[in-house]
Amino acid sequence: MKTVKMLGVNAVALALLLSLGACGSMSKRDQNTAIGAGVGGVAGSILTGGSTLGTVGGAAVGGVIGNRVK
Fold it and tell me: How many domains does the chain have?
């Protein structure tokens, strides 16, 4: 069951990353924030074994880091 949950979380994160191609009207900072959140969510999920808290925490931290990258 844990593997199925992890695959679902990763599929959502992948869909988020792939949808960023449609964000041409976003500023560079907004794009970096979205990419950071997606990558952080995937990393948080992997590092915590699919934990929801780890995924959300990773997305939050990744979004903040992405927002600060120039």
Answer: 1
